[in-house]
Amino acid sequence: MFNGIYSNATAIDISSRQHEVIANNLANANTPGFRRTLLAVSSRGNNALQQNGQLNTNLRGSEAVRSYVDFSQATMRETGRPLDVAINGDGFFKIQTDGGPIYTRNGSFQVTDTGELVTMDGLSVMGGGAIQIPIDVALSDIVINDDGTIRGNGQELGRLDIVSFNDPDALIQIGPTRFRAPGGVGEIPSEAVVKQGALESANTSVVSEMIAMIVGMRHLESAQQSLKSISEAIQQFTQLDG
What we know:
By secondary structure, this protein is an alpha+beta fold.
């Protein structure tokens, strides 16, 4: 009886968390460079839970272990915009903030009035330091090579810092498309290539996420119905026992 209560209550918790994850993935399905989040679930066997200092050997079921980011490559969408850059391969653009560097796959950039290359919200795009585009260089004349080298008017203007990590799972997500590296997690050179005039799409599928949401809702409904049945059975047993 208690095993059934625990299993179904856990199923409801997992379904709720899964719904939150899927909702976030769907909300960012059109965000360039977005990496979808997945929920890892494992089975809970015997000797899983302590009650009053004693192991309860009757509790089984599943539990949500953790959520994690899927860093798999997504498709590229042509934009024709000279300051849109997509990464093909493992790597991130390096962005400077007041709190230190952050990393992103969203390569939609712009140039400020002073000629600095920045993100759409004004953060510096790094290339061994801030990248400056001379005011006499027209945006239509800017060429970004596969290795991230930026050229204009026949001169090299900088090279995008594109870095990778041995363990990207160690990165801390700080927004839909941005990550921070905790202490001890260092950058390594990336062998990725870039494509000018394109943006990497989100690596999430609206159809797949909707299917997963429907399946999750059915599991939730089933678990809720099971809990209701167990509750009614307990009430009847209590009345008979009394």
